[in-house]
Please model this.
Amino acid sequence: MQLESARADRVAAIVLFAIGMASLYGGWAMDRLEVRRIHPASIPGLVPMILGLLLAVCAALLWLSARRERPAAEGGAGMESWRDAGVALGLCLVYALVLVGNLSFFWATAIFVASFVAVFGGEGGPGGKALLLRLAAASGFGLASSGLIAVLFRYAFLVRLP
Model:
C-alpha cells in the first residue's frame, strides 16, 4: 500500500482535530447533573471531553509530524491509494451493514478483523504456503482480538453485546 504519506497525514489531522473539538464541545454542552446532587466531577460529558481533547492533541502532533516529512516522489501511488481506501470502506460497510446484526458480535468482529488483516497485512512471499500462513495468522489475530474486545465490553464496560 503506497500513498503520499505527508498529504494523507495532513488531511487526517484536520479531520481528527475537527472530530476531537466537536467531541470536546459536545461533552461541555451536555446537561449537568448538579440538580440531582451528583458530584460535578461525575458529569456525563467528562469522558467525551477528555477523549476529544486527547484526539485533538494527537491530531496536532500528526500535523506537526507531517510538516517535517519530505513529500514523496510523484508516481502512480494515487490510484492505488484510492483503491485501498475503497477496499477499506467496503470492508467497513460490510461489517456494519451485513455482519453486525446477522451474526453474533464475536463472529462478526472476528471475520472483519481477519479480512482486514488478510487484505492489508503486508506482502507475503510467493507460493501457496506463504498465503496459507498469512491467512492463518489473520484468522488467529481476528479471533484473538474479537475475543478480547468482547471480554472488554462485557466485564470492563458492563455492556451486553448481541
